[in-house]
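Hi D.,

Good news: the full-assembly prediction came through. Inputs first.
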Amino acid sequence: MRIVSKSAAVGAIAACTSLAWIAASIGESAPDDRWWSPNESRTFFERLDYANSEGVSTTLNVNGPTPTGGHPFFSSLGPNGRACVTCHQPADGMSVSVETVRERWRVTNGRDPIFAAIDGSDCPSLPQDQESSHSMLLNHGLFRIARPWPPRDADGKPIEPEFTIEVVRDPKGCNLDPQYGLKSPQPMVSVYRRPRPATNIKYLTAVGFPFEPKQGLPLPTDPEIGQMISGNLMADGRMPTIRAQIRDAMRVHLQVPGTPSPAAVNTIEQFLSGLYSAQSVHRLGGLLNEDGAEGGPETLRDAREGDLQYGGSPIWKEFFAWKDAAKNASLTPEQRAFRESVARGAEIFSKRTFLIDNSAGITNMGFGNPVRNSCAFCHNMQRTGMDVAPGQVDLGTTNLPTANSLPDFPLFKLTCREGKQHPHLGRVVYTTDPGFALTTGKCIDIGKITIQQMRALAARPPYFANGSAKTLREIVDFYDRRYRIGLTEQEKQDLTNLMSVL
Amino acid sequence: MKTRSLKNAWFAALAVASGAFANGETEFVTFVGCPIYRDTDLGRKSGCWLAEDPATGIRYDVTDGPTKPQVGKMSLFEGVVTKDPNTCGGIVLRPVRQAVLDEPCPIAIIPPEEFPGRPFVLPPEVLKPTWEPRELPQPPYRTQEFHIVFDFGNDFLIYQYAELITEKISLYVKASKPKTVRITGYAATQPIVVSGRTLAEPASLAKARADMVAEALSRLGVDRKIMRIETNTKPQPIAGLPTPGLESSKRRVTVRIEL
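Then the structure:
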């Protein structure tokens, strides 16, 4: 039996003296030190280590020690008291975990700016002092994202959508709300999504190839930066560049009035571009850059961005060296077993093929439906697991019938006009989040979500854009069910262990 | 529908290129059928695609098309019969093209049985990563024509094919600085009867294809001011394209770089 489970971990840590400092580190992480409030005057050092349930995640800051007093990333620039750091916490892999959110509610009795009415509650019209009004954030780590309806193009002009949208179910009330809903004076579609990690930016913006096969076109060039855009930003691709995303976040999430200052945007962009985050220590596996492995954020910092994995250079090969963990006599049996499991997980990720079907963005662009391939077919960018051939894919996390049961979520009925349809679901699609279609207005894009990076995962549960996987294991279970992969229990554990060290 | 072609020069060239019958007639088949996926596993993208011509009952291996079918949807198949080894459970068509039609059919996924399938092979030429420098074509420059073929009824630029051509066009334009880039979109609007169905492309597809190529070239830096968009809804077939028959060569965009 090679399964390395969580229950074995405590004993392993205690037994392994070389890991003693990890245990000490975990013990030292008091909640107050973990949380970065706006307007503090701390220094963001070159290296920040934070304990999580799987070990330690680390964020490197190649800008060098950065005083945060007055820094726009760390300052409350708008009226709601939030700063960028509110939802992009160093201890949470520059995202924010649901555990952290709950802790903030407990510590502040719900008065932390993270619970701002605009998107930190289920709907701004709800009584903000009640815990139940913030259920999506507290239960799932989800912020309300209000998208204009009909969608707008880059210049703010309405796009004529290919589909109509009806609210089938609205448990939080925001989509039927007279002020914020679909039939309000400024019609909005409210969906609920996780904040993406603001780190490893060079990978997010990498243009590995100048062509976007999912749209069948070369990547567009952003006039502001004069470069091709990566297509890998934001769940619904609504903002093309980091600069645009920063401005959007300042206006929407921080409620900064007017046009955000270019100087502030520059400062934030420069700061973020210097951050690299990854799990660096595992409670069972120990140091992740030991014995030939190349885990941890240093590799991310030093490697070239946008490289495509392939048979001769498979993704996560950084952990293949641990196949030989048995040769290291100094390891405990648990440590050795864990490292071997991670190495197996890395191989399964790129080598275990299965039939991928009915996934718009993959199976409707010429590869065939179904197509046999592995996890690495889409998660193909070395070191981050994003898609080098960028863009959005409908994995079925939001569209029925493949989405998990999500009774807390709104449900929409999208009806495509004559001659238009979702490639695999037909003219009528039921979805909890139309995803990319809220940006393009196209039926082909209903339920498509941008593939996201896979680093520092242990620091920031829950997972998927809608938080529907509470644990790393639930990610594996979703895929196994969705694509009928037939993973063995050992393979599931190997993949889970792999993700816990990324 | 099964068509035995004339021994014209184009097909002779095609026969040599495809390894089809060396000294006889090239056998070309076209039919509408329900695709079958045979789940062989020789690594990624290694499954087999099969389809049966309803007129003859012959099962063909259509795996080698630049785009693949979708189970549960009828496809138009056009291909040249070869004597290649039967590794999937059908007579191999090569070259072969398919186009997904908006007509449902039963989903058919079958096991490998005794067939090994074929490992996926990357096309001989693929787009280079961004970080690899591009070399500009060297002078002397002359008026050049490039052709981009589309699937029936579609304006989608086919991956691992069209992006190579559009990049070559953009590099030639960059180097030669032409007066005009003439982009002519074609749609095969003249009906053909295949497997009892009358198939014809809508006239609007000619413009849609031309616009798609123009957008691609624009994104690659070609100035829209020198582009001239034209359409042709009664195209003539041309030889020399990676198509299995003359009819499919009509579904194209021709980009003419005029100095």
